[in-house]
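Figure caption, in words: inputs first, then the predicted bound structure.
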Amino acid sequence: MTKNVYILYYSKTGNTRKMAEQILETFSKLESDSVDMKLMDAKELDLAALKSADGYIIGTPNYFSAPSGYIKIFFDELFMDRAILKGRPVFCFVSHGGSGDIKHLKVMCDWLELKIVGPAIVVKGNNISSKDITSIETNIQEMMKLL
Ligand SMILES: Cc1cc2nc3c(=O)[nH]c(=O)nc-3n(C[C@H](O)[C@H](O)[C@H](O)COP(=O)(O)O)c2cc1C
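Bound structure (flavin mononucleotide present):
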């Protein structure tokens, strides 16, 4: 059965969206027919789809050393469903203006008892390096083993 993974992101000025698109492109090069990966803009949050997903890739700009409020809604609203979400793989990505901070994102993933895969991808602006792309690929492959 096909597994569903959502790349949930928020982006005001396009940097995090570019990272989300890069992740989808990296995934598409793996040519998996067992995983369906889709982008979801957090401004058009579909909680029902997220609740029934098999894994998550969550991206946000760093706002005041925290995730965007749009991303926090996912965690706030699905907290009561954490028994259902427990153990699903997740990895995170952050765009920042000078200081990447993923502490809050990690705390929220831990509260939902998601299984954090690999290191978060943390990038200044939209400056995605080839090293980041390698890390994205490794994280996706690691996630696919857990789906
Ligand atoms: C309200 C607001 C708060 C921000 N706070 C931080 C911050 O605490 N640390 C930081 O490095 N950048 C901060 N930034 C910069 C953004 O994280 C950065 O520009 C990011 O690339 C924006 O992503 P986006 O293009 O996807 O919206 C802030 C930007 C805004 C608009």
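The chain has six helices and six strands.
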